[in-house]
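Translate structure to sequence.
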């Protein structure tokens, strides 16, 4: 498709915002969509995904569309399953249908939450086993998008770390001599946002559909991550207080211990190696400095 644009749907979210900025800097013709009409302009279309999208059309042919939108907090999906499914499932499928009919290659951002977390490095072809509403909606959207075959790439992400994370909050607390409580029974397998943006670009360039799993190299408990942070900041390790999900009342919807995904395809097809988990955590703690 010649002289066409790339489209970032959800261009003011964490990932969509970083991707949009990257594409602008790389001089890729791009437009974004934003829900807030006050932010709309020549480069940002106003699009509220709660509306009936069946008659919506992009202003010009779109070569690649990145679906970076969603109701992304687990508790928001459980509190409002119907409202969140309207965005996470229905809007996803409606937009994909419109764009696929025009020949657009769609990249859908999915999550490790389509699995139950009972095993490390879950394989891409494992059956879905979500334990919370967010994961069920991501799995449902993935199933629906299979209709478009190779015109859709699924980027399943573990925790993406950008500038604003729990680690930057902890870094501020530790710097102020305050204690932080960290789960010993819940893990994180973080991946840096810059890396996610690069992978999105590579997948868009290649237009190779199917599942791409993007995960850190190994699972690390929040407690271990907090201890790495304290060490890096030179903070008193005694300020790190272990806690557990049971103690804080979190239920089974937070899943098993593991969040890591098998990333063989990243290595085999894109030649990528995974960033060491200690480096990713260190960067997240130092972001505030
Ligand atoms: N970040 C992660 O660690 C992670 C991990 C796995 C998967 N993912 C997936 O990656 C995608 C992007 O994640 P993120 O962290 O960048 O999320 P985010 O910061 O929460 O951004 C979500 C985006 O969706 C938009 N949105 C939500 N409801 C909307 C509506 N009704 N109409 C129009 N726009 C709406 C938001 O717009 P407003 O700003 O107006 O609310 C925002 O731009 C999501 O699909 C998420 O599930 C993220």
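Result:
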């Amino acid at each position: 498709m010649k002289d066409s644009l790339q489209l970032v749907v959800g261009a003011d979210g964490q990932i969509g915002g970083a991707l949009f900025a990257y594409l602008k800097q790389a001089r890729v013709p791009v437009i974004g969509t934003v829900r807030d009409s006050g932010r709309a302009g020549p480069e940002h279309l106003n699009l509220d995904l709660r509306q009936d999208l069946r008659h919506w059309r992009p202003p010009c042919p779109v070569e690649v569309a990145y679906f970076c939108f969603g109701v992304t907090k687990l508790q928001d999906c459980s509190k409002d399953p119907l409202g969140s499914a309207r965005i996470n499932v229905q809007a996803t499928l409606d937009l994909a249908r419109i764009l696929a009919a025009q020949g657009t290659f769609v990249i859908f951002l999915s999550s490790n939450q389509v699995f139950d977390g009972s095993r490390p490095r879950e394989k891409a072809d494992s059956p879905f086993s979500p334990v919370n509403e967010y994961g069920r909606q991501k799995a449902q959207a993935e199933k629906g998008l299979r209709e478009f075959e190779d015109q859709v790439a699924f980027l399943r992400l573990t925790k993406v770390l950008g500038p604003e994370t729990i680690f930057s909050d902890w870094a501020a607390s530790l710097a102020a001599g305050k204690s932080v409580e960290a789960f010993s029974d819940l893990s994180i397998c973080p991946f840096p946002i810059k890396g996610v943006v690069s992978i999105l670009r590579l997948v868009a360039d290649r237009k190779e559909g199917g599942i791409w799993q993007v995960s850190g190299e190994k699972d690390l408990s929040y407690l271990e991550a907090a201890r790495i942070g304290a060490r890096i900041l030179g903070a008193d390790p005694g300020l790190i207080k272990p806690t557990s999900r049971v103690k804080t009342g979190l239920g089974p919807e937070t899943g098993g211990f593991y969040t890591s995904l098998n990333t063989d395809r990243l290595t085999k097809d894109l030649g990528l190696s995974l960033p060491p988990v200690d480096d990713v955590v260190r960067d997240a703690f130092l972001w505030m400095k």
